[in-house]
Design goal:
Structural class: alpha/beta
CATH architecture: 3-Layer(aba) Sandwich
Radius of gyration: 18 Å
CATH superfamily: Ribokinase
CATH class: Alpha Beta
Length: 284
């Protein structure tokens, strides 16, 4: 089996601050780091580090071959990543001493993806494969519809939350992933969600596959919570692709996310399968 990820690719700029800035406030950063990010790339790396076969569908600016090299180094198939005019997507990430953050994103090449690119990429997908989606690219609904027609299982992260995007993708979604805030936003906008199974991440309270299983969060001391939800979703998708039951997939995903928040960075902070195994072995 395989995972196909129509996902954003960003260059992340991390600024560590004494506190998150208020309106009109100027702060001097305590440190600065640049790394690979974007919800899509984060999920692809998270899944690939578990040993899953991952095909990334996306776009970068013409001059950013280093980004492709970085994904290829993780064993990710990048043959379906287009080079387009303009900037690669990027994010400005401010982080306070407790690990909380705020983020500004420029979508760049991520919204230059068209239906032809998606159709050509998914021509190689097979029934039973998984399609991952988020709200940081164009063509999510087209990709979800095509994947459903081909018999893929569609796992959709409804973030950053946009009600119109969610409504367009929901008819073709098998598993809808959200955090608690996004779930509240969706219910406020559309009421009861019917159709897909729903997985909600709850931060320090764990995660809940509605109607199936709830897993607690593992106790760790976070240093950077950026990308934790992507780590969870990528690991859960990889576990399901490997044939694990929801209970096992959720526990592995929760363990991986717990490890990830103890490290600085997003894609670079994703744990390997061996690291997750070792962490779980030490748990009660």
């Amino acid at each position: 089996m395989a995972i196909w990820n129509l996902g954003s690719i960003n260059i992340d700029h991390f600024y560590h601050l004494p506190h998150l800035p208020g309106p009109g406030e100027t702060l001097a950063a305590l440190s600065y780091v640049m790394g690979l990010g974007g919800k899509g790339a984060n999920q692809s790396v998270a899944a690939a580090r578990t040993g899953a076969k991952v095909h990334h569908i996306g776009a970068v600016g013409e001059g950013d071959s280093a980004v492709l090299d970085r994904l290829q180094a993780e064993g990710i198939d990048t043959s379906h990543i287009a080079r387009v005019q303009g900037a690669t997507g990027h994010a400005i990430i401010n982080i306070d001493p407790s690990g909380e953050n705020n983020i500004v994103i420029h979508p760049g090449a991520n919204i230059a993806i068209d239906a032809k690119m998606v159709t050509q990429a998914l021509a190689g997908a097979a029934a039973g494969d998984i399609l991952l989606l988020q709200n940081e690219t164009s063509c999510q609904a087209e990709a979800a519809r095509l994947a459903r027609e081909k018999g893929l299982r569609v796992i959709y992260s409804a973030a950053p939350f946009d009600v119109a995007a969610v409504q367009a993708v929901l008819p073709y979604t098998d598993i809808l992933c959200m955090n608690a805030v996004e779930e509240a936003q969706l219910r406020s906008a559309v009421g009861t969600v019917k159709g897909p199974e729903i997985v909600v991440t709850l931060g320090s309270e764990g995660a809940d596959w509605r109607g199936r299983v709830r897993v607690p969060a593992f106790k760790v001391t976070p240093v950077d919570t950026t990308g934790a939800g992507d780590c969870f979703t990528g690991n859960m998708a990889a576990a399901l692709d490997a044939g694990l039951a929801p209970e096992q997939a959720m526990r592995r995903a929760a363990a991986a996310a717990a490890l990830q928040v103890t490290r600085m960075g997003t894609a670079d902070a994703m744990p390997t399968a061996a690291e997750t195994d070792a962490f779980l072995k030490d748990q009660p």
